[in-house]
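Reviewers of the previous submission asked for a worked example of the structure-prediction workflow described in the proposal, so we include one complete record here. The input consisted solely of the amino acid sequence. No template or homolog information was supplied to the procedure at any stage.
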Amino acid sequence: MNINENFKSSLKALDGPIHNFEDLRNFFDKQNEKSNFETKEIGIQNLKEWSFDSQGNLSHKSGKFFKVTGVVNETLKTGILLQNEIGTLGCIASRLDGIMHFLIQFKKEPGNIVSSQLSPTLQATISNQQKVHGGNAPKYMNYFHQNNNKNVIIEKLLPEQGDRYWRKFNNNIIVLADYFDEENEFKWMTLGQIYEFSKINNSINSCLRSVLSLIPTKELIDESKSKKNVEKIIDKEITNFEHKSKLEDSVVDFKEKNELQFITNNDKFHIKGFSIAIKDREVSKWDQPLIYDPYLEKYILISIIKKNKRYYLLKKYSENGYENGFVFGPTYTDRTFIDKKDLNLLLKKVESYGNLNLIREIEMSEEGGRFINTAVKHCFYEISTNENFLTFDDYFLFDQSEIHYLNCAGYLGIEARSLLFLSTTIYKDS
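From that input alone, the workflow returned the following structure tokens.
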């Protein structure tokens, strides 16, 4: 049985040879009932190891982890996180009775909406792996740093949010290993069990959603044609794109009421300071800044069924922090459409082709190591039409195979990867 067949059998397995789903759900509930950590707002001036450096940026005394700096696009300046390190988002996989299992960590993060969320086996920056914090090294990291690792199943360098990070990438990797006994907050799980958790709000963190979005859970048709079509679009957009964003030191001017407030015409977020105490982590106590978005965000993915084939309507996003200038993301996000008239206009254009049906809404939070209590409502719509759907502005239609290639090529944004992951249990025919 090949890897893809292992993935398919894993997706179908709700009760595997190690755990049934009910036991895993009970473990998840107990982890969140015994909430043994505290996140307390203390203000950025009271952060023990963070301060404004000589350039006026908020940074750690070690010079590691990340810093909050300025970014300017033409004449508009705002804030952005600069983290030159490439982090590792890694899952260990193992075949058990022909079914692929993944070692999932029920990880606690200071900004999680619920205490514990399903996370990759390893989720760590280079600073964490080098123990700059003075604590223990992350568990299982050696599995992902072996020279010429012949057990790598999937490995892709993928971008993070372009409006929050400056040219930030994480290495998304899945490695195959022999089975070993799980411990503490780690559980071997099938894809079917993981996706069943996706029906529970705020249960799966964004890092795991990103890694697993690379697994082709649907049948990919005519991959060579998909690659050719996508490369043609990417090459054209690259040719027409001009970088206008650049870093600009000093965010001191944004300091108000012991926090950094970045408020522009099309965005709003704050940087606040927190004291954190968590048991069973590499470090039990620390201080750090976290991103605070003061509203419930919304991502919308619209799928279009034409001649029994499903397409997805994606939008090109040109945000400050993307190294390549742009990525393809959801049909709609709150951060780019502050004026709801724009959303109404978009829906009106789509609805001219037929009835637009809301299939499901799922709430999932942003990454709790950088965001504090930031939830996103993922909304899935579909429409059936016999007409030739005409795209407009920066919108593009892609089928499942093309989206998979976009993802592997590093041109699918983290928001779209989250939707792609969740869509597996929603658009079951795609």
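Residues 32 and 115 are 5 Å apart (CA to CA). We consider this example representative of the routine output the project will generate in years two and three.
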